[in-house]
Amino acid sequence: MVSNKQSVSVKPNILKDPEFIHVKTQEGIEEIYEKLKNEKIIAIDTEGTGLDPYTSTLTLFQIGSRNYSYVIESKYIKDWTLIKKLCEDENKLKILQNAKFDYKFVKVALNIEIKNIYDTMIAEALLRCGLPRNENLTGLAFLTKRYLGGELEKEVRKSFFNYHGSMNAEQVKYAALDIIVLFSIFDKQYPLLQKQDLVKVAKLEFKVVPVVGDMELRGFYIDAQEWRDHIHKVEIERKRIAKELQKEIRPYFEIKSLDLFGNQAEVINLNSQIQLMELFNDKLGLSVPSTGVAVLQTVDHPIAKLMLEYRGYEKLISAFGETLLNKVNPVTHRLHPDYMQMGTTTGRFACASPNLQQIPSRGEGALFRTFFKAPKGRKLITCDYSQQEMRVLADVSGDPTLLDAYKTGKDLHSLTAAQMYGLEYTDDFKEKHGDLRQAAKTINFGLVYGRGPSSLAVQLGVSVDEAKNLVKKYFEKMPQIGNWLDNAAKGGAEKGYAETLLGRKRYFTKADPADPNYTRELSSIERASKNMPIQGTSADMTKLAMIHIAEKYKKEGLDAGIIHTLHDEIVSEASDKDAERAYEIQHEEMVSAGSTFLKKCPIEAEGGISQQWEH
After folding, report:
1. What dotted CATH number matches 2-196?
2. Could you tell me the pTM of the whole model?
3. Can you identify the CATH homologous superfamily of domain 390-530?
4. What is the distance between the alpha carbons of residues 474 and 429, in angstroms, rounded to a whole number?
5. Model pLDDT for residues 461-482, shown as the tens digit of each residue
6. List of E strands, 341-431
7. Where is the 3'-5' exonuclease domain positioned along the sequence (predicted)?
8. Which fold has domain 336-388+539-610?
9. Is 79 exposed, middle or buried (0-12, 13-18, 19+ CB in 10 A)?
10. Exposed e or buried b for every residue in 137-153, given b needs 16+ CB within 10 A?
11. Is the CB of residue 487 less than 8 Å from the CB of residue 453?
């Protein structure tokens, strides 16, 4: 054990001359335990040779209190029992920065679960949610600068990657600083959470960290061969559509050249925005502002329809081609995406590397879901909320039409259409008045996302004036929804933030009347203020459900665990013998979490057990 002074406290020179103990012996572990066993708050960090806990090595484990900081060189330690006791003590608060990363590394390398977490990165994300970000404002370097007024040496971090030798003095000092600064950050950050009334939502986020860590560690199994076979079929379809498109386009251009094989050359590059604009505007005379999907969907021309079909196949190949299979882990043979629990300003998860959230649940791309499977002897449990966001809107607005639909089991969109058009609601309304129901459905969901008449007009395929009349009719029949949306928009603009039922806040930079873009900026704030309480409350609900599901699985000793989430959907994997009970738990806890937030409107979840990802 090598000492660089015996105690540590926050001093002006803390970043230049940190006080810590470098541990290389089992006796050092015993000292750590004796010094920290009675502490109520400790800090933890790790360093490794890479970012993947399955293919990288844990090199350093840092742990400490306000008075003692230790850097443990992992390769010298055989028995981690005492460290495990400290980490798994639920009465101790553990301060970490980007806790999910350390949680996963420590669990894989040492079979230790860090419990009762406070994550400075997530706390800062809550404090700054929605505000402009021109740099990493939740990273440790920025937090150190903000709360301690100093700089962390960034270059040293790079030296840990693929490094398997003994640690030098600079590396150990850097590692020590990573936990020493956490106490100073915590001391100034936590009062801000209290001041901004974010403690409740912070506790929710901190509790979901281990759930997300475990979810990422489990991963999702994919049948690679079936995936490749389907991609091949999609590529064939894309080529067929491209050939048909070129054939349809050719008469509009004077091109007679042949390629090297004697075939007619391509008329235009189907992926060139400039050439497509020339085609639609100059050659076809359609006067389109762009060739985006939303615009082409409103164009009644066979070439536009073919172009949409081509774009669909092109997107499937670019998003779900061989690049996704390259992410399969060589150790587990599964995909282990990065789920960012504060990935959006509403609190929804974002997903990357690979982004499984972009795999469609409907249409041509839905078949890709079926290649995500449970291995032999196991099952997938998929469950999602039924119209989660509309139910939140019903609850917060208190609208009698929405509440009646959900309490009586009537078809919401048919009931809405009946109200709008003064018709009688019947069980076969959808069959009789499908077009009216579709219009009501578009408005229902459009309002949740804060969409205005222009956006709704594109979706409905009508003029902006017609869309305005439909929206007017909607609010005349359901004024409480309109009142709530107006108040939400006004409140967000005036207060500078919108919030969920739990108190999660999405902050805005207030629009300046002197700004030439004032009207546009104000509209953007008002639109987000309508959407955030609905989508954000839905996100809080899903996270609470995930926490309770994971706790229940563990409490009952089930061979089951969450492996994926997509907004209102949760996917678990369980052994054949535990699948039925796992589904019961997942369904019960999702409904229970919903009832925690919604007091007027009933909440429902639906799903099932299968061998492949369905629903």
Report:
1. 3.30.420.10
2. 0.90
3. 5' to 3' exonuclease, C-terminal subdomain (1.10.150.20)
4. 18
5. 788 888 888 888 888 888 999 9
6. 350-352, 372-373, 378-385
7. 20-194
8. Alpha-Beta Plaits (3.30.70)
9. exposed
10. ebbbbebbeebbebebe
11. no
